[in-house]
Amino acid sequence: MRVQEIFEVLTDMGLVRSQMEFSRIWLGKSPRYYSSLLARQQQPSVGTLTGLLFRLRNMLNHTNDGETRSAISSLIQRLDSHVAVRSITSTASSVHDRQPGAATSH
After folding, report:
1. 101 Ramachandran zone, left/alpha/beta (phi>0; psi -120 to 50)
2. DSSP H stretches of helix in 1-106
3. What pTM, to 2 d.p., does this model score?
4. Cα separation of 60 and 39, whole Å?
5. From CA 3, how far away is CA 25, in angstroms rounded?
6. Least confident piece of the model among 14-23, 63-72, 87-96
7. Rounded Cα–Cα distance for residues 19 and 93 (Å)
8. Longest CA–CA separation in the chain, Å
């Protein structure tokens, strides 16, 4: 799941009005963080996405509107799966790099 998709979903739900708001409130970063990611064609770290999941779950717990709850739940499920895959991939890469005989890049 790409950060652009998350931005679009939250914007469509009316929970985000600007890139700066998305950066600060949802990603917990500086106001220009999202635009910087786009310019560099990068994705947020697993830690940043985990913070976003926390904020989405908090919003879910404080929302009574059924349609909004459904949309947030769907986004949480998709993002949770994405973070799990990235976490496993990152961990596997780190373990491989530390094993004896693994090639080092110096």
Report:
1. left
2. 3-12, 19-21, 33-40, 46-61, 66-98
3. 0.81
4. 31
5. 14
6. 87-96
7. 32
8. 56
